[in-house]
From TrEMBL:
This is Ribonuclease Z. CDD domains: RNaseZ_ZiPD-like_MBL-fold. Binds 2 Zn(2+) ions. Homodimer. The keyword Disulfide bond does not apply. Its cofactor is Zn(2+).
């Protein structure tokens, strides 16, 4: 049975706190694992969350600030120590190649795993698999930063009542699905569009075109909300979003489930982030993330 869920490993911004680790997020998607922004302590958080190195197939880094990348050294070495049997691909801003190289070879270890480096230099599709297409979009932050968007291809949903109307049953149901038509009856005549699922990961950024493009139509949107609305000028100055801005993005983009994360240590009351996102007009499912939380991808529409 396929599993599609987000495992939250850490939710702090800039520095960890007593209750929040540096960033780290694992998306489980049909037997693959995509690890986003492994900050310091990610390897230990993986252990606590029941995530193994063997679960990792891609590592996606938005930018090279420490709270989003210092865990790379440990994660990469763990992948090699555990002799992960499959290829692992790393995506990260091309402009940060020197940082990736330093983290990959921070200390001596034995390389046993094929780690493919796939730096991102511009907006567009960066990977295509049978299960999804992975896209990147540039964000607005003091250092170059990219957000990521995973899109499942649209499919068709067979409707039994339409099959009955056209007298199609038994093995012919499989034939029309495989071949696209059966005599004068096309697959479109007995089915409806099944929209593919969409996931987006938006970290450190001001409001910009990339944020909206990543969020558009998402079933699950993970987005930073470092500041509360009363500190909007701080957010702009440092290249971040507020809770209200994140809520408006999700509302305008038609997001089904919004996950707020990456909270400044200056705030001790997480409920205020939800209140401000709601006040901005978002009415869908909303989660204020905490460490070791698991969030299922919403079921297809």
């Amino acid at each position: 049975m396929s599993v599609r869920e987000l495992v939250v490993l850490g939710t702090a911004s800039q520095v960890p706190t007593r209750h929040r680790n540096h960033n780290g997020y694992l998306l489980r998607w049909d037997g693959e694992g995509l690890l986003f922004d492994p900050g310091e302590g990610t390897q230990r958080q993986m252990l606590r969350a029941g995530v193994a190195a063997h679960d990792l197939h891609r590592i996606c880094v938005t930018h090279f600030h420490g709270d989003h990348s210092l865990g790379l050294a440990g994660v990469i070495q763990r992948i090699n120590l555990d002799r992960v049997p499959h290829e692992v691909t790393a995506h990260y801003p091309h402009s940060g190649q020197r940082f990736f190289d330093r983290l990959r070879y921070a200390t001596a270890y034995r390389e046993t795993v094929a780690l493919t480096q796939a730096p991102v230099a511009a907006d567009g599709v960066i990977a295509t698999t049978p299960s999804y297409t992975l896209e990147a979009r540039k964000l607005s932050h003091p250092v170059e930063s990219f957000g990521y968007r995973l899109v499942e291809a649209d499919g068709r949903r067979i409707l039994p009542q339409l099959l009955a109307e056209h007298g199609i049953k038994g093995p012919d149901v499989g034939r029309i699905q495989r071949e696209g038509a059966l005599g004068d009856v096309s697959l479109d005549d007995v089915s409806e569009l099944r929209r593919g699922q969409r996931f987006a990961f938006v970290m450190d950024t001001r409001l910009c075109d990339g944020v909206q493009a990543l969020a558009e139509g998402c079933d699950l949107l993970v987005i930073e909300s470092t500041f509360l609305d009363e500190d909007e000028q701080l957010a702009i100055d440092h290249g971040h979003l507020t809770a209200g801005q994140a809520g408006r993005v999700a509302k305008d983009a038609g997001v089904r489930h919004l996950v707020l994360t990456h909270f400044s240590q200056r705030y001790s009351e997480p409920d205020e982030f939800e209140r401000q996102a709601r006040a901005a007009g978002f009415e869908g499912e909303l989660t204020v993330a905490h460490d070791l939380l698991r969030v299922p991808v919403p079921k297809r529409r």
